[in-house]
Amino acid sequence: MIAEDLLPHLVEVETPGTTTDRYGNAVSDWSNSTRADVASWLQQNTAREDTEQRDAQIGEWLMICNPITTGGAPLTVHGSDRVHWNGAVFEVIGPPGPAYVPTELHHYEIRLKSVEG
């Protein structure tokens, strides 16, 4: 695991609950979500503007964190989750990338996307 002093950002990983839509399909229910506090490292990898159809600011970020929450519980992150940090909300892009040492899961590398506007 990564030493806590190298993970200066406290984020919340939000996982949606599920509900059934009128067609019987399971869909995400953000009004019934759960959140977990996680110590992490966040860095912005790219930034761009989309001005063709709207005035949007788009950023891609990398989040590195241990596979446990700040409370010591195992961390589970899915591609449908959101990450909250400093008032910003990020979407998780795809499944998290687990990084292993020979004996165990060491940390996660999670790609995030933010869109404003």
Describe the structure.
This protein has strands spanning 9-20, 26-50, 56-65, 82-85, 88-92, 97-101, 104-116. It is mainly β and 117 residues long. A six-stranded antiparallel barrel has the order 1-2-3-7-5-4. The radius of gyration is 16 Å and the shape is globular. The mean pLDDT is 91.
Summarize the structure.
The protein is an all-beta fold. It has strands spanning 9-20, 26-50, 56-65, 82-85, 88-92, 97-101, 104-116.
**How many angstroms separate the termini?**
37 Å
Number of strands: 7
- Any idea what the radius of gyration is? 16 Å
> Structural class given helices, strands, pairing?
mainly beta
Largest β-sheet summary = 6 strands, antiparallel, barrel
The residue ranges in which pLDDT falls below 50 over 5 or more consecutive positions are none
Query: Shape, please?
Result: globular
Descriptive tags:
117 residues, mainly beta, 0% helix
Topology:
Elements: E1 9-20, E2 26-50, E3 56-65, E4 82-85, E5 88-92, E6 97-101, E7 104-116
Antiparallel strand pairs: 1-2, 1-4, 2-3, 3-7, 4-5, 5-7, 6-7
